[in-house]
């Protein structure tokens, strides 16, 4: 597989990861009700996300309410909001930078500058994966700690929702895609750093014969 194909593959994975982060950010299923003890059979399920909380009835009806105050939110929710929004914006920047420096575009002339621009795009994708991993692991740690904490009532215990798993999958795509972009660009730059030298053509002497120094 050529470096251009690897670069396109990395860009595609980065775009998928970026879309996955946006999807996980908007979904309200970061924490869901845990059906344990007295809550094994309930008529409603509670979903808690970064932007709203939803109550799903057993009949299929769902009612969602956006959080009233930003300052009254828990620290992990505030951090999750900030980091996911930053990652969404950085993902757009990474896409534009990578496309500008990609081998399949002519925005920049081929050379070291073009490779550096692509490496910068891949590095931004990797940074996005690291940043979005922070709120995901923070939420997961809180959910697991409260679930096994005996002082927390059963009605307040939560389980990890689908948004966390989508976020982890998006993180893997961002990290893998960014690494592919950086690796193929580095290898291309290394290959181009060794220019090919051609010897001067042999010229005959005045008597029509080739000079003997051409054979030394």
TrEMBL record:
Sequence segments annotated as region (Disordered): 194-216
PROSITE patterns according to UniProt: CLAUDIN
Annotated localization: Cell junction, Tight junction; Cell membrane
A cellular-component GO term for this protein: plasma membrane
Keyword annotations from UniProtKB, A to Z: Cell junction, Cell membrane, Membrane, Tight junction, Transmembrane, Transmembrane helix
Transmembrane parts of this sequence: 7-30, 82-105, 117-144, 164-184
Pfam families the UniProt entry points to: PMP22_Claudin
Entry keyword Methyltransferase: no
InterPro entries named in the record: Claudin, Claudin5, Claudin_CS, PMP22/EMP/MP20/Claudin
Keyword Transmembrane attached: yes
An annotated Gene Ontology molecular function: structural molecule activity
Membrane topology recorded in Swiss-Prot or TrEMBL: Multi-pass membrane protein
Family note: Belongs to the claudin family.
Main function: Claudins function as major constituents of the tight junction complexes that regulate the permeability of epithelia.
UniProt name for this protein: Claudin
Lineage: Eukaryota, Metazoa, Chordata, Craniata, Vertebrata
